[in-house]
């Protein structure tokens, strides 16, 4: 019996490590995309920059039900979605495809505390 438990436990730990590494890699990839698209000029993961909401604040305010609306905000910019803060129009920042906007919004919403 001991011979089965040890390899099974080891395999379980390795799988969890792989999942954690994959999640960390996804987070790093998404942060790189946010940096490339200049989202991080105004937004950070925490509330360090007072002129715009952090990714964490956005995740706390909105749910996955708001994802389509948030994708449109990323694509078109504008105001009236977060107090008096105004998101720059697309011609004032790098182009973001709908696919990229969807990935960014989903990544941000995954930060929501449960």
TrEMBL record:
Q: Which UniProt keywords apply?
A: Heme, Iron, Metal-binding, Signal
Stored Gene3D superfamilies:
Cytochrome c-like domain
Query: Which InterPro entries does this chain map to?
Result: Cyt_c-like_dom, Cyt_c-like_dom_sf
* Entry keyword Iron: yes
GO molecular function terms noted in the UniProt entry: electron transfer activity; heme binding; metal ion binding
Provide the leader sequence positions.
1-23
* Domain Cytochrome c positions: 22-112
Does the record carry Isomerase as a key word?
no
Q: What is this protein called?
A: Cytochrome C biogenesis protein CcsA
